[in-house]
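pinning this so it doesn't scroll away 📌
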Amino acid sequence: MYLRVFKFLILIILLSFSELKAQRFTTSPYSRYGIGDIFSGATGHNIAMGGAGIAESTPYFLNTVNPAANTDLLLQRFVFDVGFDVKYTKTESEVQNQKNSSATFRYFAGGFAVKPWWSFTFSMSPYSAVGYLCKDTVNVKSGDYTRKYAEYFQGKGGLSEVSLGTSFKILKMFSVGVKGKYVFGDIEREDSLNTIASDYTSKTIFKNEEIIRGFTADFGFLAQKSFTSKKDSSKTFLKLAAGVYFSGNTKLNTRSQLTMFSRNSLVGSTDTIANDTLYDGKITIPKSFGIGISAEFFEQLRINMDYRFQDWTNFEMPVEKNASCFKENKYYGMGIQYVNAKYSSRYYKTINYRFGIHKCDTYLKLNGYDIQEKGISFGLGFPIRTLLLNVSCDFGTRGTTDGGLYKEKYFLMHFNVTAHDIWFVKRKFQ
């Protein structure tokens, strides 16, 4: 049985890895700037808690944000977590609106403890996503003749990451951890100018492909303290934790390839005008840090609060020399989780209930307006033997219709399964 489960999970890993580059994770016009929409890295149950979880360390879930917060994993148990998203977005401007939907792979993660004080984790997930299509039409009149020009801006791709982390418990109360990450991906941006006449259509296309590769690392620290009942020392009535993670400036190898070609409906062929390497060097992902606190009461109610910061003020890409649209990125999240009785024989008492809110000052400032995001989330966790099926929902908005910009209203449904499997045990009977 376990061999079949293992083979199935390996298949999920391979399919998920291929999907990292094959899928389109966003349809936002704001993904046109920088490296696109950046993912928070939170797992499914934290998504329902406003994305908060830097200081959360439990035997039941993996922490993919703070590499130090995995030292409570149990010996001889392997924890797997795989998640998928379904997202509906309505994008509005001052004159029109558009609806989009997508279903995409979100992440795969696994972890285990080799010693009571030492654990390993690994994961693969999107790092950022680019996916947009904008159109602008202009009519130019010369005498009695009017010529129509249509300009298209579109982009796709993004960055993905594969990580391997380890954490150590020190003096019972403290934990430290490190996570190494390989970030890779391609971002394609294409601008085309269409000349539309009565008898023909010509198109000039500028296609820029950014090929990005590089290694980076996150470091984490966690302090936690449990308080037991005086009447029953086996029961914990309060568990407090504080965590922090940080990463330095990261230089990623980047190659920018420009291809320029033209098409004409009369000729019916495509001519390549230019194909050159514009840039072959490095871009710098700015340093970041996050701090969080967590409190658990009577092993029933958990409260998480997070703050994250990353300064993109001086960020530049070869195709985007003007850094005036980038600013500091600040994230605030808070969430609660409640379960009546984890080990009750009555199923309804074992269901996890979650709720959260978040606010994000994104790293973009356009036309004088800060692009902000805010949302409310909730979710349920259903235990099924050694599995926990989590369903999370997130309602939110981003941006504004002022200044010729766009406002996005989104509804995200996230599904993930957390599996606990017993490993490294020699069985006498099969």
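📌 and the second one:
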Amino acid sequence: MSDFSTLTHAKGYFAPARFDVELFDCEIAGTVPTDLNGAFYRMHPDWVYPPLFADEASLSADGYISAFRFKGGMVDYRGRYVRTARYQQQRTARRQLYGYYRNPYTDDPQVRNLDDPSVRTSANTTPVILGGKLYATKEDALPYRIDPNTLETLGLEDFGGHWHSQTFTAHPKFDPRTRETIAFGYEASGLGARDVVLCTFDSVGRVTSEMRFDVPHTTMLHDIAITDRHVIVPGGSAVTSPERLREGKIHWGWDRTRDSFYAIAPRGGRASDIRWFRGPERSIVHTANAWSEGNKVYLDMPIADGNTWPFFPDIHGNPFQMHPNTLRRLTFDLDSASDQCHEEVLFPHEVTSLTRIDDRFAALPHRYIYVQRADRDKPFRASLPNDPRSQPNNSIARFDVRERSLRSFFVGDTHLVQEPCFVPRAGSQREGDGYLLATVHDLAQMRCELLILDAREMTEIGRVRLPFRNAMQVHGAWASEDDLPLA
């Protein structure tokens, strides 16, 4: 299984959970390290009401935020729906009012708004910590600010009117050396638009620079990567247009004739200084990390040769065929007159696109990439709702890009694991010295667990067990008491 989104309309374990919850003194198997002092936030897509269309993706499901609060070897848990305008409208109507992901033309007429995407966002993708505040983000609109302790929804955020885009990314990048955050919005001026706004925030969340530019074609710009000098904006072969949306179609289609592209932008620079590179048809979703050496820029990331989205139809009518992600390294030579990048496969193993690193080494050469994957050599003794033959993501992999080696942890034969998140060990500066936190779904026991691994040894330390099942997680983020005002 390549992505959480394939379980859009699942029943059983992955049926909508539909409840807010507070749970104190969670059950713990094993131990919880006492230096884990902070909160692990997660965003989930969870339908309050069933989607209007049978072929809708979980990209549109309502946003749900949860938090595991670690302190003194104990763990508490909270989970709440994000009270977006969309959520409130549906609760009032007691039914689903919104149509396809990012297509307001398919909404119920009583809520249809073609000009303001923030009225229909579900804010379901990434918990983002920026300038000492917590946000629920989704790339189709502005973010919602969230109380880091109660998870109460505090409202939309436009950063004091200094954010000049209708949209805000679910993947801003934090530079641990400058304490700056790089964020962007695409389809910035409206649906189907080619314009991108790229901004730098200082450590307290103020916009300090802005760059606006157009990309070669409107495509899903889900993630970026940064180095100490550059921002890399990668785009793939998914396409859209205002005409497509007016026809009531799914926002994204797949065009295998479209090349991929990469914008190499100077941090804090001008749009005229962007260097553009091209590549072949590619599915590009998440990045792992990037760094600059001389006049070369390197980018490690999962890439697929074709479509990885079963619900993005081929615009030429070709049947869907899943293309696996593998970890690759792209090299951009800024001294070369060529606009072609060099692509190298680092590992042949199929992985998801949900890669993570030790974030203290963001924008620097790194050694480790963490990602969940399906280890087909391991047993699977449960059933998934849509396809009981599917092999779940049952392992967390640590890829060593320096030694080109793999070390893996198998989470269980009735289990499915979500994106891992690295947390440094207190007082250590060594890359990879810390813990991995990852949600594990026990399909047999119908409950959710939070797995704690020693990231050095890739061995289990403990599990935090919830007495209920959870919606699928998209992304998670760790916050210490230095990052947020945690109670």
